[in-house]
Write a structure and sequence with these properties.
With 296 residues, this protein is α+β, with helices and mostly antiparallel strands. The chain contains nine helices and 13 strands. It has a single domain, classed as q2cbj1_9rhob like domain (Jelly Rolls, Sandwich), CATH 2.60.120.620. The relative contact order is 0.18.
């Protein structure tokens, strides 16, 4: 009944109407079902750097999330670039021509920016729910999480229209949380190589093998709408494969969290993904301190 009221636009969305709290009692962190879900996610994150929480979002709510994406799709910043796994687009003469730093592949996709979402929409309700933040933090085995305060990259949606792909890359954040909202008819598959690099080892040989088409060691996920994915993308090379020209688009909501409060994204990456930066990004860049010495 509650989910039906959401679909009819008759009530404000709540966590209970959006998330399957019977299967995943996020509001009862001492319950057996909650602890089982946390333990399962921790095991996967420790072993392969990625956990899937199947069917977290109720089927009726998935339809609502997709409607919200469709309603905001006109604000999507689409871009096509030829880039290396570090989002760089120009040759670096300090490295050989066949090095990962100088290997460039197509990225073509779009992002709905954070300032397109209103505070009472269903997608935002899930993103900001304290219960979900606590659950994800416990899965990641960290004390607490904060909503990413970046005004463009905090809550977003990644769009892969027909013909597009998000090629092999690393994230700048240690982890990413996404919910698949609409799968492509075919293609649009999330693929990754666990622990391709570390803070001490760039893993260039492993990266180049993948960029040249090597498939050994690559994991391909079986994601369905409503599944939440927790992924350590800072150290694992990953991509979303091309959506065929005759397929429907792939839509995924991205919930960006940080361990520290008040974090703002980097100017260069923000410009690439959203086509603009705000004064908050410029101010944060002047104060930024890097947490590692990886290329990016």
């Amino acid at each position: 009944m509650a989910s039906a009221r959401i679909l009819a636009g008759m009530t404000v969305a709540t966590l209970e109407t959006l998330v399957d709290l019977d299967r995943y009692p996020l509001h009862e962190p001492d319950s057996a079902a909650y602890l089982v879900a946390v333990d399962a996610a921790r095991e996967r994150l420790r072993s392969v750097g990625c956990a899937i929480v199947k069917d977290l979002v109720r089927p009726e709510a998935v339809a609502v999330l997709n409607d919200e994406i469709e309603a905001r799709k006109h604000t999507t910043h689409f871009s096509t670039q030829v880039m290396n796994p570090y989002f760089h687009t120009s040759v670096n003469d300090d490295y050989p021509a066949d090095h990962p730093v100088n290997t460039f592949l197509e990225r073509s996709s779009g992002f709905i920016p954070g300032d397109s979402w209103n505070a009472d929409c269903a997608t935002d309700v899930i993103f900001r729910a304290p219960e979900l933040k606590r659950f994800v933090a416990e899965c990641l085995e960290i004390p607490e999480l904060h909503c990413y305060e970046d005004p463009l990259a905090g809550l977003t949606a990644n769009i892969l229209d027909p013909g597009q792909l998000f090629t092999w890359h690393f994230d700048t954040n240690d982890f990413a949380v996404t919910v698949l909202v609409q799968e492509a008819d075919e293609g649009g598959l999330f693929e990754y190589y666990p622990a391709t690099r570390s803070a001490e080892d760039e893993g260039f040989d492993r990266i180049q093998n993948i960029l040249e088409g090597g498939r050994e060691g690559i994991h391909t996920l079986d994601l369905r709408p409503g599944d939440m994915q927790i992924f350590r993308g800072r150290y694992s090379l990953h991509q979303v494969s091309r959506v065929p020209a005759d397929s429907r688009p792939r839509h995924a909501a991205i919930f960006a969290y940080t361990e520290e409060a008040g974090v703002i994204g980097r100017v260069e990456r923000t410009q690439q993904l959203f086509g603009r930066v705000l004064q908050e990004h410029l101010d944060a860049e002047e104060q930024r301190i890097r947490s590692d010495v990886l290329i990016d």
